[in-house]
């Protein structure tokens, strides 16, 4: 499925990505897939329920949909959609905020502004487009804490004040991500407008949830490439997230940063006869 999504992404944006590592060793780059798989069945159930306006427990996130990207809650009237995110915002520096030690003590922790400012990545505006990835240590076993019928969930998240700080002060942060099903914490989950999703979405910051850590990822030095399913009439879509990290010995500290270039590549190749590659109607498939 995700091979087809990648092909769709490249066709729509007409962009090619080339990357290199250090000048003296350009091959030392680890490519890490951070995507939790999404099935066509889960997509059909989710978008079918949204179209029929069924009541859903969206304040607990949608873990069954896999890795998902959104800008605002679906109940709001925002005009931003994943399909209009600039391509240069989808290829960005990756900074990991590791909170697993804190969530081991308090699984439903609310990351407040005063605690978050202890990390330099959150205290100072980065120098280039950056995706902030909050690693809470969420796992498949934690899905048992979500009661969909009563919309009761125990999920770690961000405080509203922290989201406001990111939106107002970190001008180079183009996106935030988490391994939990939602960014909403106990402080924001029951509100309609005073939510993390709304304050970040109104500022043009996209959000990626259900990120899957298959292996250890360095806190600094990586680049990330987000590839959302580019549906025009949806603010929440499945996405693929890939990290490009320096391949170094885990026991040795390094200041190596992966460097990637993004260039325009427009082909004048004639359309293939009897081909529907450019006529794929995703709305028709999902219905």
UniProtKB/TrEMBL annotation:
<protein>
    <submittedName>
        <fullName>Uncharacterized protein</fullName>
    </submittedName>
</protein>
<dbReference type="InterPro" id="IPR037175">
    <property type="entry name" value="KFase_sf"/>
</dbReference>
<dbReference type="Pfam" id="PF04199">
    <property type="entry name" value="Cyclase"/>
</dbReference>
<dbReference type="InterPro" id="IPR007325">
    <property type="entry name" value="KFase/CYL"/>
</dbReference>
<dbReference type="GO" id="GO:0019441">
    <property type="term" value="P:L-tryptophan catabolic process to kynurenine"/>
</dbReference>
<dbReference type="GO" id="GO:0004061">
    <property type="term" value="F:arylformamidase activity"/>
</dbReference>
<keyword id="KW-0732">Signal</keyword>
<feature type="signal peptide">
    <location>
        <begin position="1"/>
        <end position="20"/>
    </location>
</feature>
<comment type="similarity">
    <text>Belongs to the Cyclase 1 superfamily.</text>
</comment>
């Amino acid at each position: 499925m995700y091979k087809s999504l990648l092909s769709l992404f490249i066709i729509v944006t007409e962009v090619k990505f080339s990357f290199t590592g250090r000048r003296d060793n350009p091959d030392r780059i680890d490519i890490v897939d951070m995507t939790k798989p999404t099935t066509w069945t889960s997509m059909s159930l989710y978008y079918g329920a949204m179209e029929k306006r069924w009541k859903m427990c969206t304040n607990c996130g949608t873990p069954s949909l896999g890795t998902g990207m959104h800008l605002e809650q679906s109940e709001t009237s925002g005009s931003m959609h994943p399909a209009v995110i600039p391509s240069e915002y989808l290829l960005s520096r990756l900074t990991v905020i590791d909170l697993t030690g804190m969530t081991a003590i308090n699984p439903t922790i609310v990351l407040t502004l005063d605690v978050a400012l202890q990390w330099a990545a959150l205290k100072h505006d980065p120098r280039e487009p950056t995706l902030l990835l909050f690693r809470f240590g969420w796992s498949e076993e934690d899905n048992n804490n979500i009661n969909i019928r009563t919309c009761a969930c125990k999920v770690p998240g961000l405080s509203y004040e922290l989201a406001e700080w990111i939106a107002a002060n970190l001008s180079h942060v183009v996106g935030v991500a988490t391994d939990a099903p939602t960014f909403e914490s106990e402080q924001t989950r029951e509100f309609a407008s005073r939510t993390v999703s709304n304050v970040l979405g109104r500022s043009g910051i996209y959000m990626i949830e259900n990120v899957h850590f298959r292996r250890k990822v360095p806190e600094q030095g990586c680049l990330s490439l987000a590839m959302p399913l580019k549906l025009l009439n949806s603010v929440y879509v499945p996405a693929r997230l890939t990290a490009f990290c320096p391949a170094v010995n885990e026991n040795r500290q390094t200041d190596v940063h992966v460097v990637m270039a993004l260039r325009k590549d427009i082909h004048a190749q004639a359309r293939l006869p009897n081909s529907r590659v450019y006529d794929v109607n995703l709305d028709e498939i999902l219905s």
